[in-house]
Description:
One of its GO terms (molecular function) is threonine-phosphate decarboxylase activity. By secondary structure, this protein is mainly α. Helices cover 68% and strands 4% of the residues. Strands 1-2 form a two-stranded antiparallel ribbon. The protein starts with a helix and ends in a 24-residue tail after the last helix. Residues 313-340 have low confidence and may be disordered.
Amino acid sequence: MFARASGIAAAVVADIVFGDPRRGHPVALFGSAAAGVERRTYADTRGAGVVHTASLLAAVGVAGVLAERAGRRRGAVAEAASVAAATFVAAGGTTLCRTGEQMAALLRGGDLDGARALLPSLCGRDPSALDAPGLARAALESIAENTSDAQIGPLVWAAAGGTPAVLVYRAANTLDAMIGSRSPRYARFGWAAARFDDLLNLVPARLTGLLVVACAPVVGGSPAAAWRAWRRDAGDHPSPNAGVAEASFAGALGVRLGGPTQYAHELEIRPTLGDGRAPDVDDLVRAVRLSRAVQGLAAALAVSAACRSGRRASARWSGPFRPRRSRLRRRPELSPGVAP
């Protein structure tokens, strides 16, 4: 478990320094492989989607187990490297915040075309239908939701289950982004991917809400307002997890999120989250700062949790019930003809 803790810490540092790889990202490679499998397995039924999702996630899980065991056989450093590599691949918090900062800079400079071109890097909304306030709101909501999905989730699952757990989490999250929408093509085929992703994010989303409450003063916000918006408004959101992150962010920032939300396949009328005014570019900058604070606190908690798990595991083998070698030495075998 100490190897797991050091691996998580190394992954967090690597994410801060490097961000997501621009080429050959393993998540993108998995997405390409999943798309290839989909061409052979697609059928407009839930059953086909269950088989598709379960097969891909099982393959990733087995690969993760094998990688972690191989690292463990080579020693603590190799095991930590396995956890670090998997967590780094799964985490995307630094790139999320950098993209949010780029969006804010484009909006401040009045470059709406550039902002619309950048928006698909944050969310799946139709940017052509959005003006500057709409782009700011879409980016802020994406920062809030993806603080949980792109960073808190990987940290939680890395601390809880190491390499296989964090890889399965990221694969499930990727499948949800690919086929979990309610579009006509994926309403049934993507059902399993969407529901499984919801399940994996139940704990990370609520941890995100708690951390937003704790970090609200970093952006001049009120912990009480963040808590109130979460408890009152999150349940109205169509997602059981995104609503927690978005509502708590809205309360902490003192803004109002939700409303008409245009996707490529449909227009959704989202519920109102928070009590304040509509967000602007300055609020987007504050949201990025809040996300960084939440990510930093989550990283510290994940490392601490992994260390405590390691201490508990060690205690089980060093406590009063630890198996001990007998103090009686085995009597040596006597050679034939030799007197005792």
